[in-house]
Amino acid sequence: MSAAHCFQRPSGPVVYLGRQNQEGSNSNEVSRTVSRIIRHPNFNNVSRDNDIALLRLSSSVTFTNFIRPICLAAANSTFNRGTTSWVTGWGTIKRGVPLPSPQTLQEVDVPVTGNRNCFCKYNPSGRTITDNMICAGRDEGGKDSCQGDSGGPMVSKQGSVWVQAGVVSFGIGCARAQFPGVYARVSQYQSWINTQITSDQPGFVTFTSTGTDADLSATCTGLPAVTTPPPRPPLPWRK
User: Fold this and answer.
1) What pLDDT is recorded for position 8?
2) Per DSSP, which regions of the chain are E strands?
3) Which are the catalytic amino acids?
4) What is the pLDDT of residue 95?
5) Burial class (CB in 10 A: 0-12, 13-18, 19+), 148
6) DSSP 99
7) Contact between residue 92 and residue 147 where contact means Cβ atoms under 8 Å apart
8) Scanning 60, 193, 215, 230, which has its CA 20 to 30 A from the CA of 115?
9) CA angle at residue 32 from 63 to 151, to 5 degrees?
10) Closest to 75 in 3D by CA, of 169, 183, 158, 191
């Protein structure tokens, strides 16, 4: 699974599994060519809505201690504002600054900001945050995914189980105050994913946040009023 915007002009992509460093050897790494790229049919390159794609590998992969699957967030999952998430990738460490040699895989923890709060931050810049997106970042900035991380995973932990909540999509700059990163919301695509993968379907897990979602108190111009919250809070309407 990756971001649709990464494959607008695909030219024989190769998937590397178990890789730690971009330079030098990786003894636990295996690679596979891609036999098919399935972009979401409603992907919009301007708004980045539905920024999700599936990759079919040319052959199967044997799981090891270094290559493991992850559970995907099920359709009724809730990620309240403040839920801790982690993002991994080999992208730039800040805007215009590449990851130094040997380019070791990086990880950063960022809290979910909530879609209402995220809408209020992005709407003045002309960006729309939709139900198909999930945002994460700190109000003061300083931590974020960045250019080159696109298509990578945003994950959260529930008990002992890691669950993928998002796919790196876009943002304004990197780690800027008041501009969280925006990710494709995996839980919106359970049905679509299952229609594309007819055998050996991925495992979906319902991620459940407890307590009242602080995001419900967010208000700003253009943001719909909160009605009586259903089990899954109503949400309005990248890197």
Assistant:
1) 86
2) 14-17, 30-39, 53-57, 71-73, 84-89, 106-111, 133-136, 153-158, 161-170, 181-185, 204-205
3) 5, 51, 150
4) 86
5) middle
6) P
7) yes
8) 193
9) 85
10) 191
CA atoms within a 13 Å half-sphere pointing along the CA-CB vector of 144: 31
Q: What is the pLDDT of residue 234?
A: 38
| Distance in angstroms (rounded) separating the CA atoms of residues 194 and 132 | 17
Per-residue pLDDT, 226:
77
- In degrees rounded to 5, what are phi and psi of residue 76? -100, 25
Instruction: HSE, CB side, 13 Å, CA atoms: give it for residue 149.
Output: 36
Q: Can you read off the two tokens belonging to residue 231? A: 């089990």
114-157 pLDDT, tens digit each: 999 999 999 999 999 999 999 999 999 999 999 999 999 999 99
User: Is the link from the previous residue into 102 a cis peptide, with omega within 30 of 0?
Assistant: yes
Query: Using a CB cutoff of 8 Å and minimum separation of 24, what contacts does 159-163 make?
Result: 161/71, 161/205, 162/70, 162/71, 163/70, 163/71, 163/72, 163/73, 163/77, 163/205, 163/207
What is the DSSP secondary structure assignment for residue 94, as one 8-state letter? B
Q: What is the pLDDT of residue 12?
A: 83
Phi, psi of 116 (to 5 degrees): -65, -45
Specify the DSSP class assigned to residue 202: P
Residue corresponding to tokens 């943001």: 223
Please enumerate, as own/partner, the contacts of 55-60 that have beta carbons within 8 Å and a separation of 24 or more. Answer: 55/1, 55/2, 55/13, 55/15, 57/15, 57/32, 57/33, 58/32, 58/33, 58/34, 59/32
